[in-house]
Amino acid sequence: MNLRQVATLLSSGALLLGCSTTPGANEPVLNNLVVATPQVADSRFQLELAKLNEILANDRDQLNAEAMGQILYRRGSLHDALGLDVLARIDFNHALDYQPRLADAYNYLGIHYTQAGQYDYAYEVLDAALELEPGHPYAHLNRGVAAYYDQRFDLALDDLEIFYQNDPNDPYRAIWRYLVQVEVNPKQAKQALATARLTQQSDAWAWGIADLYVGAMTEQEFLSNYATAALAEDETLAERMCEAYFYLGKAKQLKGEWESAAVYFRLAMATNVHLFLEHRYAGFEMDWSQQQANQQN
Fold it and tell me: What is the pLDDT of residues 46-57, one digit of tens each?
């Protein structure tokens, strides 16, 4: 951990310098890259999908509306996990035909509409999810992310502040709040992230991303000491690198190093971890970074 470095930066006022947005003459070479084997489609998901298809083919007439809604929702979530986005959206919409109060289906649709850049639809379905289930664990996150990509940063910050306060020990919540806040007030964003880092009670590896963002760790230190260290028993290297490369890409964007950012987002996409938020938006971020890089050249 780099708590001492974070505390030193916070007390010295160095964090108030904010983030540089001016690229150097030459972006640094990307060293020590770890290219993980892409995640393969989980056989358990495929088997469950086959069973659900069999039930819908043979027993549909015997299922009531509640059962149909649940089966279609579950099939949609499996399609989503396997990267079959169109099939997933069809199932979620059909699930809502049978169970109009299924908050989780609205939440998933909000993610898909955001990925498609259809922000008004995203807000509509995520509002519905929160009306049906005000304590939904991820609807505030997903509505905040939608507003972030829609460049409605004040609205995004409202949702992501709620999401952060629900579990301040989760580093990803602090990181996403930072990514939005830095668009509004870079000085406050960096200070808030450093404070969150110092007050948290978790040893999750992703706090290394916070160390990187506040300047308590270099990019190479992060790659060497955090990105591949201490994988959990249920965690794959592809999952870890999907997250690591996405957030490295965001760090490069904040420095105006668009070419390097595009490389990192491309690496995040190559992991094929379809379930992760970072994979969902890596393609959008890659395209945006490449557009910015092309404008500089």
Answer: 999 999 999 999
Do the Cβ atoms of 241 and 227 come closer than 8 Å?
Answer: yes
CA distance 96 to 297: 48
Inter-residue contact 65 to 43 (CB < 8 Å): no
Closest of 297, 296, 267 to residue 282, by C-alpha: 267
Dist CA 121 CA 139 (whole Å): 14
Is residue 68 a contact partner of residue 52, using CB atoms and an 8 Å limit? Answer: no
Nearest-angstrom CA–CA distance, 198 and 63: 52
* 8 Å CB contact between 142 and 132: no
**The 3-state secondary structure of 225-282, one letter per residue:** HCCCCCCCCCCCHHHHHHHHHHHHHHHHHHCCCHHHHHHHHHHHHHCCCCCCHHHHHH
- Residues of the chain below pLDDT 70: 1-32
Asked whether the beta carbons of 76 and 95 are under 8 A apart, the reply is yes
Of 164, 140, 111, the C-alpha closest to 278 is 111
CA-to-CA distance for 126 and 179, rounded, in angstroms? 21
Query: CA-CA distances (angstroms) from residue 269 to 172, 220, 280, 283?
Result: 19, 21, 8, 7
The pair of structure tokens assigned to 219 is 């990019």
CB 208 within 8 A of CB 197: no
Tokens of 126: 């995520």
Q: DSSP class of residue 37?
A: P
Q: Which amino acid is at 58?
A: N
Look up residue 291 and give its amino acid: Q
Q: Phi/psi zone of residue 28: left (φ > 0), alpha (ψ -120 to 50 degrees), beta? A: beta
pLDDT of residue 11: 47
How far apart CA 184 and CA 107 sit, in angstroms, is 26
